């Protein structure tokens, strides 16, 4: 059996490249985890997800406890078997979704009572219950149940919320059943206040987890403040444990996060964008519904090996979205996840060769440049039929 | 280059097994053609379509002329390149869709003027225009433009409509540009009147086409009358040319059609059913939204090699449809097309060995039997996680 641990293979400034070893296989870090909220990465088969090079995916406690139910998933062999992903799975604790989706929440020191956004039925999550659900789902990585305060909030409210989350983290750890190759992550809270972040890290490391997440960012504070908070936070986190920045972000956010010592990310952006015709590329984003793509036989990106880019032109994608065909979201989600995975691969390689800053300059210049011209990416030669 | 022709390899009663040779490759017949109305078989990648063994797919003149436009498709290299299907494509002439979808139709002896169901813009289709559009799309098989009368209608109306369609067939042939390996099919009309069908066949064979379709059936007349009409029609059709029964049908319709000498079929049923949780199986249809599948780890069918059946249980499909996840329609459409292709393969093999009647008995008994019991198809052994 594999012990759950992270090995650092190279560093470049604050950035780290390494491998997360788990019961369900290894994951090269830094890594981006596609979001499979209810047991499916929306609009993708798991074969397609695998083909992009993704090493680990997310599931969600809140959604899966409501439908189909954690015990149902357990009886069916766990989330890996259920969704056909034998690799590692990280499950969100449900804390964030209770706050953003659950109705009629009642928070007390013990946990949260809420009504399902699906059918209004009443449910309760506590650190113990969230941990047990994640166990039933067979999550490779279990997250601590935490409280996510609505922002903006006064510093005292942020502090009180963080301290509640730290007590819940200790209870989550108590409830966690250690298994070889599995791990549990504590979640650093404290808003954008460095002292609160430091206090949170101290509380979590006193308990001791297999990894540490940074929560409560990317909630509207802006990229500059997020990066400043990371700079004040990651240096205080254990050097030998993986660091996960929750719910982040754009390609530029990922780059900035990696350069500040983050190893793991998740975000719905690439999948959600794929369903709304927005393509991520080395030249920023494109809206494929835009009329300028209607007759363009070129791929979305000349650098992409996804099904959309190797077999179809932009004109076809444009047509699919205009005609509201399911294949549009299928192909474009695939493309976006492929782009995110390619980006992470480039960053891992650059860290290995000590060239992350130069990669960052190239990436940022690309994102700020406009779409490829026809000189840079010519129209393909298309023989016309007889 | 390949001459467009059909070779008969074996017969079993009226049923025929053979090969359709085309510029875009051979097709084993009898064959079922998945419907790719606007340049996509809904909810499937073309790789998935290929994996089911499908040999030829459909496109639609009416839909493609409105969006993205036939000249656009031509400029992008034709429908094969556009939709990533290098194999044969048959295009519907648009006649049926003008009648069922177009608004404010005005029919005259020359053609039909109608308004688009998408944006209300005015368009006109004539035999010449429909044929030119199908040429621009680069259809392997071009269909004659015909008039499809709304039923029920008095015999005189059916006769007048059929005779108009025969004049249009002659004009479609005039407009058709012969190309090596390509073909054009005439469409036999005449409702359920054997004399009208005979007159129609005479008119079409006097012109001469590479194949002959049977139109105007499966429009509400019922299976018994459809089969009776086929029995009066196919014996009068050329023996050495492929026969295509348009818009048909259920698995039982396909079996009955093959046993009455039909070689080609198309229908939206398996794809449409796949989007509404209905699965075709050897034991009839299942509704995967039904609560009885919620905890069932067994595949939809023990005989199916599609992605849904080889990787997932019914419980997962049930969950996807309950949660309105796109992967539900993706997996179930794949399953249904795989089922239809397996059915056609079984029929081709049975014709080759002269056992079609015995296959028919087995198939019908299965469709009438209820779902597999757990004795017949046991729950898979699922090891529970630690």
Automatic annotation (TrEMBL), chains A, B:
Keywords, sorted A to Z: Glycosyltransferase, Metal-binding, Queuosine biosynthesis, Transferase, tRNA processing, Zinc
EC id: 2.4.2.29
Region of interest called RNA binding, as start-end residue ranges on this chain: 247-253, 271-275
GO cellular component: a single term: cytosol
Cofactor: Zn(2+)
Active site (UniProt): 92 (proton acceptor), 266 (nucleophile)
Pathway noted in the entry: tRNA modification; tRNA-queuosine biosynthesis
Molecular function per GO: metal ion binding; tRNA-guanosine(34) queuine transglycosylase activity
Residues reported to bind Zn(2+): 304, 306, 309, 335
NCBIfam families, alphabetized: Q_tRNA_tgt, tgt_general
Primary role: Catalyzes the base-exchange of a guanine (G) residue with the queuine precursor 7-aminomethyl-7-deazaguanine (PreQ1) at position 34 (anticodon wobble position) in tRNAs with GU(N) anticodons (tRNA-Asp, -Asn, -His and -Tyr). Catalysis occurs through a double-displacement mechanism. The nucleophile active site attacks the C1' of nucleotide 34 to detach the guanine base from the RNA, forming a covalent enzyme-RNA intermediate. The proton acceptor active site deprotonates the incoming PreQ1, allowing a nucleophilic attack on the C1' of the ribose to form the product.
Subunit description: Homodimer. Within each dimer, one monomer is responsible for RNA recognition and catalysis, while the other monomer binds to the replacement base PreQ1.
Family per similarity comment: Belongs to the queuine tRNA-ribosyltransferase family.
Protein name: Queuine tRNA-ribosyltransferase
Species, as recorded: Acetobacter peroxydans
